[in-house]
Amino acid sequence: MITTFKTIAGIILLGGMLSLTACNSGKPDAADTGGAAAQASELPASAQPEGSPAPAAGTEPAEAGGAAATAAPDAGGSAAAASPAAAEPGTAAGNSAAATPQELSKQLKELLQLAKQGKVPGVEYAAHSGLIDDVEAAWGEPDTKESAGKGIYSTYAGKHVVFGFNKGSQIFDVRSSAADLQKLTLKQIEEVLGKPDATSVNGSDDIYIYQAGKQYQLKFIIPDSTGTVDHISVFSEQDSINNMAG
């Protein structure tokens, strides 16, 4: 009876030990658990957004960074495109301002005063009193020299000046096509100098003539195609006669 009881107790004890061993083999190793926790803690915070599972290391962070890098230039480009003035500073400021009425008045009155001396702005050689020989001695040979109308005309293109002279070398016409003159319109001229004393037409050019003293005429030549001055002329009619004619 005692032997039978010991046998049963041994069987029960062995069964318990086998059951305990099976339970222990199903639990993870403490070192493995620590390793998994360490790997999770190494992921950057940006790769672990709220409400979504943690991504695999080395995937989403790189894609997020790539998206950010792509978006940044686009944003900068949009800002530049929306602000052309900022991209090209000073564009409007580079445009020259139009002359004021006071400046135009001064310019035109000076033209008339110089014309009374036979001169145009910036040129010392005058109609009636000047000789083409003196011009050529100082300025050299003209770019072109040709007969036209009542005399011979020498063109100095680089100076925007043309001299008309007779066969006695006396200058009777001084013309200027300076850039500031070519901005003038008939309306601006008439507002300062009044209506012209005479008008004429030469082809498609309208000529507006103002008497500048007894000796000279101040002429504004305005092509129909532009509506602005092409050149001015200070003209001494009496000297345009061929003084060397036999």
TrEMBL record:
<keyword id="KW-0732">Signal</keyword>
<feature type="compositionally biased region" description="Low complexity">
    <location>
        <begin position="31"/>
        <end position="101"/>
    </location>
</feature>
<dbReference type="Pfam" id="PF14172">
    <property type="entry name" value="DUF4309"/>
</dbReference>
<dbReference type="InterPro" id="IPR025453">
    <property type="entry name" value="DUF4309"/>
</dbReference>
<protein>
    <submittedName>
        <fullName>DUF4309 domain-containing protein</fullName>
    </submittedName>
</protein>
<feature type="region of interest" description="Disordered">
    <location>
        <begin position="27"/>
        <end position="101"/>
    </location>
</feature>
<feature type="signal peptide">
    <location>
        <begin position="1"/>
        <end position="22"/>
    </location>
</feature>
